[in-house]
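Tutorial sheet, problem 5. The two components below are modelled jointly, 700 residues in total.
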Amino acid sequence: KQMMVREALNSALDEEMSADPKVFLMGEEVGEYQGAYKISKGLLEKYGPERVLDTPITEAGFTGIGVGAAYYGLKPVVEFMTFNFSMQAIDHIINSAAKSNYMSSGQISVPIVFRGPNGAAAGVGAQHSQCYAAWYASVPGLKVLSPYSSEDARGLLKAAIRDPDPVVFLENELLYGESFPVSAEVLDSSFCLPIGKAKIEREGKDVTITAFSKIVGLSLKAAEILAKEGISAEVINLRSIRPLDRSTINASVRKTNRLVTVEEGFPQHGVGAEICASVIEESFGYLDAPVERIAGADVPMPYAANLERMAVPQVEDIVRAAKRACYRSVPMAAAA
Amino acid sequence: DTTPLTIETSVPFTSHQCEAPSRSVETTPKELLSFFRQMATMRRMEIAADSLYKAKLVRGFCHLYDGQEAVAIGMEAGITKKDSIITAYRDHCTFLGRGGTLLEVFSELMGRKDGCSHGKGGSMHFYKKDSGFYGGHGIVGAQIPLGCGLAFAQKYSKDETVTFALYGDGAANQGQLFEALNIAALWDLPAILVCENNHYGMGTAEWRAAKSPSYYKRGDYVPGLKVDGMDALAVKQACKFAKEHALKNGPMILEMDTYRYHGHSMSDPGSTYRTRDEISGVRQERDPIERIRKLILAHDLATEKELKDIEKEVRKEVDDAIAKAKESPMPEPSELFTNVYVKGYGVEIVLMSHVRESLALKYC
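Model answer (C-alpha cells):
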C-alpha cells in the first residue's frame, strides 16, 4: 500500500489525539481552513474547536501559550506555517521550553511538539527558504526530528507527541505530496519509531552517505547512479538530528571508510559539520579519504530558478562527492 | 482570632471597562497578623539576601522585592493554591507566598542542594509546581504568554481556576503581551495580567518608556483595575474580584501601584534615576508593612511590643535558615547532566572530552 506524507502526518495526529485527550493542535489556519498544507484536514470536525485552535498570526504569543499549557501538563502540538516563522517565537522554544525542566530540577517538564515545514521550498526567496535543523539541534533540552518517508512521518510524529520533552519536528513542504510504500505494521495505530535512531535506507560497502528529510531521496537516487558505476553506497536516513545516532553513523563509516554528509542547510556549524566531528573523534583511524561535506550554498536563498538550483544540493553533487571520496576520476569541469 | 472586620482601602480603585469592586474589604484579626508576619519575613529575607550578595555568597543576578510585599501577600489572600502564578525574575517573595521555605530560598540563592531548584536555577528561577507556582522567568515579558497558556490549560481541563501572570511596568511595553492578551480575550482565558508597576523599568522611569503609563487601560477591550499595590487588603479585594471576573468573562488587567526600595538588581544602587527623597517619602507614607502595623494597633489586635516580638522572631527564623543553607552541600557533580530531559527516555548525553576528563579526575 502507498501513502502520501501528508496523510501519514494527518493520521498520526488523528490517532494521537484520539488516544490522549491532553493532545491538542494549535496554529495558523489549522482549523477551518484545514491547514495551510492540509496536514490537519478533518481534525476540527472530528475533535472540535476546543482541541483544534486557529490562532492569529502572532507566533510569539501563541507559542508562549502552547508552552505554558505544556507546563500545566497538556500536550500541545504547535504548528508553524513554516519554520521560518518560528524565529518570531524562538525565545519560547529555547528559553521557555528547552530549559525549564533543567532550571526547575525536574519540576516543570514540557511535553510539546513544534512542527511544520522546514528547509528550502521552491521559488519563495530567502525569508521562506531555510533549514533550521542545525539551529535547534544545538540546544540541550530539545529533541529534533526530521522525517523523510511516510513511515518516518507517522512513526516519528507519534513518538514526538508521546515524548515528555519538547520536540522540534521538521517536515518538508516538497515531500507532503510524495507517496511511499507502507507496511501493515506502519499503518497500525500502535506504530511508533524510537527517537535517536537513524535508519539505514540502503546498505552499501564503499561509501557512507548521511542525509535527512528530502535529501534522503536525492541520496538514494545518487546511490543508484553510483551502483551503475560500481560504487556501493550506504545511505543513512538520520531521522533524529538531536539526539544524533552517532553509533550508527560511526559503525557505517568503520565499514565503508568513507563519508559524504549531505544537507540543505548552511555549511558553517551545520549538521554535516557535527557528523564530521563525531567521525573524526570516534573513527579517525578508519577514514580512507577526507570527509566530503555537501550543504546549501553559503548565501541567502536566491529567487531566480537557475541560482536557486545552484544553492541547494543536487543528485549530481552527491554522486561527484562520493566518487571523489572513492578516488574515482571526476571530470574536471564538473569538479570545479 | 477570626471575628470579621471590615476595613476601607487606602484609595478607591480606578476601573477601565468594568465596575470597580467595593472599597470595604472583609478581613479578620488573624489575617492581619499573618499579613504582618509574612511581610516582615519577606522584608527581612530580602535584606538578608542583599547582605549575602554583598558577601559574595550569591552569584550573578539578584532582584529584590522589598517594598512590593503587599502584592504577593494580598494576592495569596484573594486566591487559592489551586490557582496558578507565574512571574519574572523578581521571584523570591512570590515563591515564599506560595508556601516555599526560607531554607529553600537561601539555599537556591547560594547554589546549594537544598534550594528549590537544587541549585540549578538560581535567584531568577524559583518554582513550586505542587502549589501552582510556575517560576521564575528571566526573559522580560515571556512569562505573560506562558501564563495565558497555563490559563488555557486550566480552562481546557475544566478546573475552574485561574492564572495570575505578573510583570513589571518595563515588560508592559513588550509586544508579546499584546499578542497573548489578544488571544486570551478571543478565547476567554481565565488569565489575570498583573502589572506590578514599581515605576521604573530597570533605570528608566515609566513615562520615558510608555506613551501611556496607565497600564490598567492598555488592554483596550480588556477590563482593567488600578490598585494601590502598597495596600495588601486592596490587593486581596482586587484579586478576588479579578478571579471571579476571569472565570466568567476572560482576561483582566490589574495594575498594582507599588514601589521597590532596592535598585533593579544588585548592580543598580537605585539612586541615579530617582531621588533619595522619593524613596524615603514612600517609606514614610506608603510602606505596606507599616500600613498593616497601624491597622493592627488602631484596632487593638496586638500591642506594639507584640509586633516587635514578631519581628524579632522573624529575624531569628531568617538567620537560622541562612545558617542551615550555608551547611547545605553544593549539588553533586553528577547533577550537571540530570534533568536536561525527563528521565528514562534513552537520550544519550554527549560528553565532550574535557568534561569527561574533569569528572573523571575529580570523582573517580
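Marking note: The longest strand of chain A covers residues 23-27. Full credit if you identified this.
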